[in-house]
Amino acid sequence: MIHVIIIDDHDLFAEGMKSMFKTKDGIEITHHISNGHALPALLEQVKADVLLMDIDMPEIDGIATMELIQKQGIHIPTLMLTMHQSMRQVKGALEKGAQGYILKDASKKELVEAIVKTSKKENYFHPKINDQVFDYFRGKNKNNSGIQGLSEREKEIIRCLAGGQNSKAIASNLFISEHTVKTHRRNIMHKLNVKTSAALIRLAIEKGIIELA
Predict the structure, then answer these.
(1) φ and ψ at 107, to 5 degrees?
(2) Residue pair 60/33 in contact by the 8 Å Cβ criterion
(3) Domain annotation for the chain: domains and CATH numbers
(4) pLDDT tens sequence across 22-60
(5) What b/e sequence results for 18-57 when a residue is b if at least 16 CB atoms lie within 10 Å of its CB, and e otherwise?
(6) What single-letter DSSP state applies at residue 78?
């Protein structure tokens, strides 16, 4: 039996979820809370195999609730539940370690599959956002491969840009022509699939090319 806790501020929806699953489904909704702040205390008292977490809640949202329990060393497979399919929200949930993401209009069959997969720490994404998730990971992998393809000179130029230097200053410091610097900058942008220096610097910090003081 997979024991599930629902964290959702819509009581009627949560009650409907609790009545949906039967013993034969191998899933039991053991508890429902409407405020993520109450989750850490509940998890000290009861066992849960899966957290079914509403991403949109008024006092503390689902992503912040995940952060809250993780700071206390609690790591339980989490399936995000929502009415929306915003890629911004999907990305935020994935970055905080959610195993999956399902929309509230999912069928019972889809919910069962999602909960079972999540309990096994496998990923599940609702069919309506599956393509968006694929595109997100494909873009992320593209950026990673671009980072690996940077030369030491290109990394050096990125560090100079992060230090606030323009192309002329970089050329002077590195004893190369300004034209060469601009060529390197275009190549770097292309490799990393970014369009602005600000986006380039954010990515470089994320990937450890630039270290924050």
Answers:
(1) -75, 165
(2) no
(3) 2-137 (3.40.50.2300), 149-206 (1.10.10.10)
(4) 888 999 999 999 999 999 999 999 999 999 999 889 889
(5) eeebeeeeebebbbbbbebeebeeebeeeebbbbbbbbbb
(6) E
